[in-house]
Amino acid sequence: MNRLHTELDDVRAFHDKFGVPMSPVPALLDTEAVRFRIKFMQEELNEFIECHDSLDIHGSADALVDLVYVAIGTALKMGLPWPALWAEVQRANLEKRLAKPDGSDSKRGSPLDVVKPPGWVAPDHTGALGTTTDFPSIFNASACVLRRGEERQNPDLPSVAIESFLESVTSTGVK
Known about the structure:
Layout: H1 3-18, E1 28-29, H2 31-53, H3 57-77, H4 82-94, E2 97-98, E3 114-115, H5 126-129, E4 137-139, H6 141-153, H7 162-169, E5 170-172
Parallel strand pairs: 1-4
Antiparallel strand pairs: 2-3, 4-5
């Protein structure tokens, strides 16, 4: 069993339960949504740093899982084909090698690092995402949340078919 796919499914179930909007196609997020997700991931990273510096293994573990949870959730919101993207990054990462014992070949100056050897081939996500000329599409997750709020406040509000509503909030071109 591939745990990553199970964790991806867990986060998808969380999003489904709480009505967190997810793009039906690979897309960038609207400015408000991406700023929120960045802040959310930064909060979890900061929590990890604080807990680790305080020698709190439980807090460190929780913050690290939360960081991954939020990162996977962000990928789902963006409609990214996570398993295909992961497989390509894994392929490229496995072609790397350990840094020299003195870390002199590491960007981070550490012997704990892995480095790109000569001839290393970066991940190519064209197969999963298409060509860059197909982008950027922008998924207006904020509009989805506003629509959900309107529907909660006014249950008699006519419902828009989910496919056409999602299509209306996913546009091509930067806005």
